[in-house]
Amino acid sequence: MPRLLLFGASGAVGKALVRLLEAENAYTVHGTCRSNRPPLPAERCHRLDLEDFRKLELLWERIRPDAVVLALRGDYEKQLRFHRAVAELAKGSSCDVWFCSTSAVFDGSAKKPHTEEEAPAPESEYGRFKAACEEMMASVLGSRLRILRFPAVFGRDVPRVTQLMERLKRGEIVEYHDNFFANRHTDEMLARQIAFLLRHRPEGIFHLGSVDIMSQAEFYRELVFRLGYPKERVKAISHPADRILAVLSKRDWPEELRITHDDILDHFRS
Ligand SMILES: NC(=O)c1ccc[n+]([C@@H]2O[C@H](COP(=O)([O-])OP(=O)(O)OC[C@H]3O[C@@H](n4cnc5c(N)ncnc54)[C@H](OP(=O)(O)O)[C@@H]3O)[C@@H](O)[C@H]2O)c1
């Protein structure tokens, strides 16, 4: 069976992908984590810090992955060095590398949605770091690097949702922008899309996320309602200017891998 090494297997994205790939049983999945345990058997869980290059090399030698998914967070400088080290190891092998990037690589040009052929235009520190990481890894790996750009991810155990539920339980009013428009994703559909890509191995950049956009305040009003609270618990506020941050795809995705905001919200129907 082909071997897949997932960096960041204990994170929100990593866990959803592990659950799906373990159920599909098409790969022997190995996953790294720092302090949380991924949903993998102990012998395939590997504690690995971003600074532990010796351990990275040993792990690589031991697993010799056929595919790598990078779904990490952490200090940006350390991540850049770590991602370079992974790219250099992958360069000397035949393995495919899938890098989790973000819609934030376009946050310096937030006037319209962006498709795959557009060049990044980052403004925030996060967006600039992710764009730099994409560029650095592409310079080492060329077309062997696949870039996955997606917007905010939602799911029952995703921290932005569990933290929201904590605030609602405490009786707080939560504030969201009525003139910030975005697309969004679920952890489960993102995992299904990544699993599809791993199977078919197309090259290039992939924009993953809902095919429609919605304002932040409207989305959270609906979400809060699905979570069992009145919509009035969301207070709408405004940015000085309208903002749109969305990554839309020009690719021909199978119908069952398309997702809308209605589907995302249905995910939370109680
Ligand atoms: N979630 C989103 O909405 C979203 C949207 C767009 C793009 N992305 C991208 O998708 C990727 C995954 O995001 P996520 O939300 O799943 O992140 P996450 O839940 O914070 O998980 C991050 C993963 O990185 C590991 N990690 C963190 N610091 C580390 C360190 N110093 N050394 C080694 N490992 C470390 C964590 O291990 P422990 O759990 O053991 O600490 C965890 O496995 C990221 O690259 C992110 O930029 C996410």
UniProtKB/TrEMBL annotation:
One cellular component (GO) term of this entry: methionine adenosyltransferase complex
GO molecular function, one term: methionine adenosyltransferase regulator activity
EC number(s) per entry: 1.1.1.133
Record bears the keyword Transmembrane helix: no
Pathway in which this enzyme or protein is active: Carbohydrate biosynthesis; dTDP-L-rhamnose biosynthesis
Family assignment from sequence similarity: Belongs to the dTDP-4-dehydrorhamnose reductase family.
Protein's name according to its UniProt entry: dTDP-4-dehydrorhamnose reductase
Taxonomic lineage of the native organism: Bacteria, Bacillati, Bacillota, Bacilli, Bacillales
